[in-house]
Amino acid sequence: MSPNDMEAKPKQKVEGREESTRPGAYFLPPVDIFETREELVLLADMPGVAPNDLTIRLEDSILTIQGKAKHAIDSEPIYREFELVNFFRQFELSDQVDQEKIAARLNHGVLMLELPRAEKAKPRQIPVQVEVAKEAA
């Protein structure tokens, strides 16, 4: 893959959020998901979202992330090059994730979700036993 093949995706608007009673458009936050031996780590870019304006819910194995972005300065800008948007994204979790131990952190507009593997899903080494051949009598 060459650098010319890589480009930023434009903001994707979330369609069909009929269940929402909040006004305004919502966009999918871009995410990266990493897999380690112990967990999955999800990073979501959510610029302008403060911890008080972020909701993370887990219901029926559906993880929902919703954030409302605000400017750091409580005033209308006189010049604007980008628009802050609201974010909404859902993920269906399998039983491979220990849903009781999910942790979340927000740092400078980047949400980090740690999704630990369930014990039964963690890789493990199987010991091999060597049987000693018995001599024929």
Offer a concise description of the structure:
This protein has 137 residues and is mainly β. 0% of the residues lie in helices and 38% in strands.
How is this fold's topology laid out?
Layout: E1 26-27, E2 31-35, E3 39-45, E4 49-59, E5 62-69, E6 86-92, E7 103-107, E8 110-116
Parallel strand pairs: 1-6
Antiparallel strand pairs: 2-3, 3-8, 4-5, 5-6, 7-8
Structure description:
Helix content is 0%, strand content 38%. The strands form two sheets. Strands 1-6-5-4 form a four-stranded mixed beta sheet, with no helix packed on it. It has a four-stranded antiparallel beta sheet with strand order 2-3-8-7, with no helix packed on it. The chain has strands at residues 26-27, 31-35, 39-45, 49-59, 62-69, 86-92, 103-107, 110-116. It is built from no helices and eight strands. By secondary structure, the protein is mostly beta strands. Residues 1-8 have low confidence and may be disordered.
